[in-house]
Specification:
By secondary structure, the chain is an alpha+beta fold. 32% of the residues lie in helices and 41% in strands. 19% of the residues are buried. This is SnoaL-like domain-containing protein. Pfam families: SnoaL_2.
């Protein structure tokens, strides 16, 4: 006897992948405004945010404050989300480039980044951030900029 097709559920890998990508996209949209209060709505209360250099934050507002000291402003050009569903959580790798201005007003673009998000029960429980900013800052310092 043929069994009826099940409708997608949160345990369905395709649905979990789509949901996780939507959560990441909504979080990043709020983060780039920047609106750390709205961004926090997509994160678990005990979220772990780790920036390059091992800087640890527990709320998007802390990451926003760090970025405010590093850049006059910064935005992401999102290239894609690579989604890896798992039995208890889904991992989303968000890839693209950063553009904006350094604190002195000098514009920049093409600064590669990768953010790794772990989504569990519809919330971001972990965000890890890697980008080329440190290398670019060192290069600017070496050139006297």
């Amino acid at each position: 006897m043929t069994q009826p097709l099940a409708s997608p559920t949160p345990t369905d890998p395709a649905q979990a992948s789509a949901d996780a990508a939507r959560i990441v996209d909504a979080f990043l949209e709020a983060s780039m405004r920047p609106d750390p209060v709205a961004a926090a709505a997509f994160m678990a209360p005990d979220v772990r945010i780790v920036f390059t250099g091992g800087r640890l934050f527990g709320h998007p507002g802390e990451a926003t404050a760090f970025n405010a000291a590093r850049y006059r402003w910064v935005k992401k050009r999102i290239l894609r989300n690579d989604v890896v569903p798992g039995p208890e959580e889904t991992v989303v790798y968000n890839l693209g480039t950063l553009y904006g201005e350094w604190p002195d007003g000098t514009p920049f673009e093409g600064n590669r980044y990768v953010d790794r998000f772990v989504i569990r029960d519809g919330l971001i429980v972990s965000q890890e951030v890697w980008n080329d900013s440190a290398e670019r800052i060192l290069s600017r310092a070496a050139s006297g900029a």
